[in-house]
Design a protein that fits this description.
Helix 7 links the parallel strand 2 and strand 3. The chain is 40% helix and 15% strand. The chain has helices at residues 10-29, 56-59, 62-65, 68-73, 75-91, 96-107, 121-124, 151-154, 181-193, 211-218, 246-260, and strands spanning 33-37, 112-115, 130-132, 135-141, 148-150, 169-172, 196-200, 222-227, 240-243. Helix 9 (181-193) packs parallel to helix 10. A six-stranded parallel β-sheet has the order 3-2-1-7-8-9, with helices on both faces. Strands 5-4-6 form a three-stranded antiparallel β-sheet. It binds nicotinamide-adenine-dinucleotide and zinc ion. Residues 38-40, 42-44, 47, 49-51, 116-119, 134, 201-203, 205-206, 226-229, 231, 245-246 line the site of nicotinamide-adenine-dinucleotide.
Length: 266
């Protein structure tokens, strides 16, 4: 039998294969593995991260549009961005990285996924134990009376309003808002007991999500980082840095985990 075709160019192949084998080894040895994901994991689904050129965030700066004070001051202005974001998110599909993460969870090699994303693509990719650190965009709430509506039922309405007349806000955590208590506490507990942490597609600059890798490392977890670029974690807490697009790396990693675990023959 010939070798399976590699998605990587020949020069990168041996180094990449070696790093992926190291990551698979860490995952197979761990009894408690977490993933922390950020906007980068959804870039291959067509959702720009904060750095993508020409995407949503180059027209609506997050500092100006994605803050709770901006929403309170001028909800109509912030809804211009939210409406475009909702159109984009509701049309998006999980990519190979989300699917691979879902498969690792099903195989029992990944226990919880803490995501900073609000796009629900981990669930669409088959994952079940998803902690949505920054909320999600599947529902909208009213500040005044606390009523909640599904995004689906309010999609045709612009501006979406509560029956009390107040403009609704999606249940995403804007800058300046508190992290949902359950997500915060569970993530902290998980990070303290993890033996391995996969950090995928996050610049790890948004606080307090960026304390999760540090906390996990201090408690003895091995860190695998997958990113197209180096981050401040790479030279400080990362054990295995795999540089490139999450989709093909995670797809290859799942195959390697199966081989390492003896679930398939190579
Ligand atoms: P970020 O934009 O600060 O960083 C994204 C990281 O992903 C960067 O380090 C980049 O190098 C990396 N990256 C880009 N494409 C990649 C790919 N194909 N494969 C692997 N890595 C890739 O994102 P953040 O750290 O998540 O922080 C931004 C905040 O804004 C978070 O709260 C985030 O959830 C939110 N946000 C969410 C979405 C979404 O729900 N999809 C999109 C944009 C921003
Ligand atoms: Zn109301």
């Amino acid at each position: 039998m010939g070798e399976e075709p590699s998605p990587f160019c020949p020069k990168e192949r041996s180094n990449m294969a070696d790093l992926i084998a190291q990551a698979a080894e860490i995952i197979c040895r761990s009894n408690m593995t977490l993933a922390l994901t950020g906007a980068g994991i959804s870039v291959e689904s067509g959702i720009p991260d904060f750095r993508s050129v020409g995407g949503l965030w180059s027209r609506y700066s997050p500092e100006e549009y994605a803050t709770i004070s901006a929403f309170v001051e001028d909800p109509e202005k912030v809804w211009m961005m939210l409406r475009e974001m909702d159109e984009m998110l509701s049309a998006s599909k999980p990519n190979k990285a989300h699917l691979g993460i879902g498969e690792l969870e099903k195989l029992g090699y990944l226990h919880y996924i803490i995501t900073q994303n609000v796009d629900s693509l981990h669930q669409a990719g088959g994952a079940e134990n998803v902690i949505e650190y920054h909320g999600h965009s599947r529902s909208l709430s009213c500040f005044r009376c606390g009523n909640r509506y599904t995004a689906e039922e309010k999609r045709g309405e612009y501006l979406p309003k509560c029956r009390c007349g107040e403009i609704l806000k999606p249940d995403v955590v804007l800058f300046g808002e508190a992290i949902p208590t359950k997500a915060l506490n569970t993530s902290f507990q998980m990070a303290s007991s993890a033996q391995a942490l996969m950090v995928v597609g996050t610049s790890a600059v948004v606080s307090p999500a960026n304390t999760i890798p540090i906390n996990a490392k201090q408690n003895g977890a091995k860190l695998i980082e997958i990113n197209t670029e180096r981050t401040h974690l790479t030279d400080s807490v990362t054990d295995v840095f795999i540089q490139g697009e999450a989709g093909k790396i995670i797809e290859t990693l799942v195959v390697e985990v199966k081989k390492t675990a003896g679930l398939v023959t190579s």
